Protein backbone atom coordinates (compact mmCIF):
# COMPACT_ATOMS: atom_id res chain seq x y z
CA UNK A 1 0.00 0.00 0.00
CA UNK A 2 2.74 2.43 0.92
CA UNK A 3 4.39 2.20 -2.47
CA UNK A 4 1.18 3.44 -4.18
CA UNK A 5 0.91 6.62 -2.11
CA UNK A 6 3.43 8.70 -4.11
CA UNK A 7 1.76 7.68 -7.36
CA UNK A 8 -1.69 8.62 -6.00
CA UNK A 9 -0.38 11.93 -4.66
CA UNK A 10 1.21 12.71 -8.03
CA UNK A 11 -2.06 11.83 -9.80
CA UNK A 12 -4.07 14.07 -7.45
CA UNK A 13 -1.57 16.88 -7.93
CA UNK A 14 -1.82 16.50 -11.72
CA UNK A 15 -5.62 16.47 -11.58
CA UNK A 16 -5.54 19.59 -9.41
CA UNK A 17 -3.29 21.35 -11.91
CA UNK A 18 -5.58 20.34 -14.78
CA UNK A 19 -8.62 21.62 -12.89
CA UNK A 20 -6.92 24.96 -12.12
CA UNK A 21 -5.91 25.26 -15.78
CA UNK A 22 -9.53 24.67 -16.92
CA UNK A 23 -10.82 27.25 -14.43
CA UNK A 24 -8.20 29.74 -15.62
CA UNK A 25 -9.08 29.07 -19.28
CA UNK A 26 -12.80 29.49 -18.55
CA UNK A 27 -12.10 32.76 -16.73
CA UNK A 28 -10.08 34.02 -19.71
CA UNK A 29 -12.94 33.06 -22.02
CA UNK A 30 -15.46 34.93 -19.84
CA UNK A 31 -13.17 37.97 -19.80
CA UNK A 32 -13.02 37.86 -23.60
CA UNK A 33 -16.84 37.71 -23.78
CA UNK A 34 -16.99 40.76 -21.52
CA UNK A 35 -14.58 42.66 -23.78
CA UNK A 36 -16.62 41.81 -26.86
CA UNK A 37 -19.81 42.92 -25.14
CA UNK A 38 -18.17 46.18 -24.04
CA UNK A 39 -17.18 46.89 -27.64
CA UNK A 40 -20.72 46.08 -28.81
CA UNK A 41 -22.11 48.35 -26.11
CA UNK A 42 -19.92 51.21 -27.29
CA UNK A 43 -21.05 50.70 -30.90
CA UNK A 44 -24.73 50.46 -29.94
CA UNK A 45 -24.59 53.56 -27.75
CA UNK A 46 -22.73 55.51 -30.41
CA UNK A 47 -25.13 54.49 -33.18
CA UNK A 48 -28.27 55.29 -31.19
CA UNK A 49 -27.13 58.58 -29.73
CA UNK A 50 -25.30 59.80 -32.85
CA UNK A 51 -28.33 59.17 -35.06
CA UNK A 52 -30.71 61.10 -32.84
CA UNK A 53 -28.31 63.92 -32.00
CA UNK A 54 -27.54 64.39 -35.70
CA UNK A 55 -31.25 64.65 -36.46
CA UNK A 56 -31.69 67.16 -33.63
CA UNK A 57 -28.77 69.28 -34.89
CA UNK A 58 -30.09 69.31 -38.47
CA UNK A 59 -33.57 70.34 -37.31
CA UNK A 60 -32.13 73.07 -35.09
CA UNK A 61 -30.07 74.44 -38.00
CA UNK A 62 -33.12 74.39 -40.27
CA UNK A 63 -35.20 76.19 -37.65
CA UNK A 64 -32.54 78.86 -37.17
CA UNK A 65 -32.19 79.38 -40.92
CA UNK A 66 -35.95 79.71 -41.43
CA UNK A 67 -36.71 81.74 -38.29
CA UNK A 68 -36.07 85.27 -39.67
CA UNK A 69 -38.46 84.83 -42.60
CA UNK A 70 -40.88 82.38 -40.99
CA UNK A 71 -41.00 82.43 -37.17
CA UNK A 72 -43.48 79.54 -37.20
CA UNK A 73 -40.77 77.40 -38.83
CA UNK A 74 -38.66 77.82 -35.69
CA UNK A 75 -41.60 76.65 -33.60
CA UNK A 76 -42.07 73.65 -35.89
CA UNK A 77 -38.35 72.86 -35.63
CA UNK A 78 -38.55 73.02 -31.83
CA UNK A 79 -41.49 70.60 -31.86
CA UNK A 80 -39.53 68.18 -34.05
CA UNK A 81 -36.46 68.55 -31.82
CA UNK A 82 -38.54 67.82 -28.73
CA UNK A 83 -40.05 64.75 -30.41
CA UNK A 84 -36.62 63.47 -31.46
CA UNK A 85 -35.19 64.06 -27.97
CA UNK A 86 -38.16 62.22 -26.45
CA UNK A 87 -37.59 59.33 -28.86
CA UNK A 88 -33.91 58.98 -27.95
CA UNK A 89 -34.74 59.12 -24.24
CA UNK A 90 -37.36 56.41 -24.72
CA UNK A 91 -34.82 54.24 -26.54
CA UNK A 92 -32.27 54.76 -23.79
CA UNK A 93 -34.87 53.85 -21.15
CA UNK A 94 -35.71 50.70 -23.12
CA UNK A 95 -32.00 49.77 -23.21
CA UNK A 96 -31.73 50.28 -19.47
CA UNK A 97 -34.81 48.11 -18.87
CA UNK A 98 -33.32 45.31 -20.97
CA UNK A 99 -30.04 45.59 -19.12
CA UNK A 100 -31.67 45.51 -15.72
CA UNK A 101 -33.49 42.28 -16.60
CA UNK A 102 -30.14 40.51 -16.79
CA UNK A 103 -28.24 39.12 -13.79
CA UNK A 104 -26.65 41.88 -11.72
CA UNK A 105 -23.09 40.71 -12.29
CA UNK A 106 -20.95 37.95 -13.66
CA UNK A 107 -18.75 35.91 -11.44
CA UNK A 108 -15.88 33.84 -12.71
CA UNK A 109 -17.51 30.52 -11.74
CA UNK A 110 -20.67 30.86 -13.82
CA UNK A 111 -20.87 31.20 -17.58
CA UNK A 112 -21.88 34.57 -19.03
CA UNK A 113 -25.35 35.10 -20.45
CA UNK A 114 -25.62 34.57 -24.19
CA UNK A 115 -24.67 37.71 -26.05
CA UNK A 116 -27.66 39.46 -27.54
CA UNK A 117 -26.37 42.98 -27.36
CA UNK A 118 -26.26 45.28 -24.37
CA UNK A 119 -26.13 42.98 -21.35
CA UNK A 120 -23.23 43.52 -18.97
CA UNK A 121 -23.33 45.39 -15.67
CA UNK A 122 -20.87 47.79 -17.29
CA UNK A 123 -23.53 48.49 -19.91
CA UNK A 124 -26.01 49.42 -17.20
CA UNK A 125 -23.48 51.80 -15.66
CA UNK A 126 -22.58 53.41 -19.00
CA UNK A 127 -26.18 53.91 -20.07
CA UNK A 128 -27.06 55.30 -16.65
CA UNK A 129 -24.20 57.80 -17.02
CA UNK A 130 -25.25 58.78 -20.54
CA UNK A 131 -28.87 59.02 -19.45
CA UNK A 132 -27.88 61.21 -16.47
CA UNK A 133 -26.01 63.64 -18.72
CA UNK A 134 -22.46 62.37 -18.20
Overview of the molecule:
With 134 residues, this protein is mostly helical. It has one domain (2-131). The protein is 78% helix and 0% strand. It contains three helices and no strands. It has helices spanning 5-66, 71-101, 121-131. The longest helix has 62 residues, at 5-66. The termini are far apart. Mean pLDDT is 76; it is low at 104-120.
Indicate the topology:
Layout: H1 5-66, H2 71-101, H3 121-131
Summary tags:
134 residues, mainly alpha, 3 helices
Please, what is the average pLDDT?
A: 76
Q: Report the β-strand fraction as a percent range.
A: under 5%
* Total number of domains: 1
Q: Total helix count?
A: 3
- The value of Rg in angstroms is 26 Å
- The helix/strand order is HHH
Structural class designation: mainly alpha
Distance between termini?
69 Å
Number of strands: 0
Unreliable spans: 104-120
What is the general shape? rod-shaped
Into which percent range does the helicity of residues fall? over 70%
Largest sheet at a glance?
A: none
Summarize the structure.
With 134 residues, this protein is an all-alpha fold.
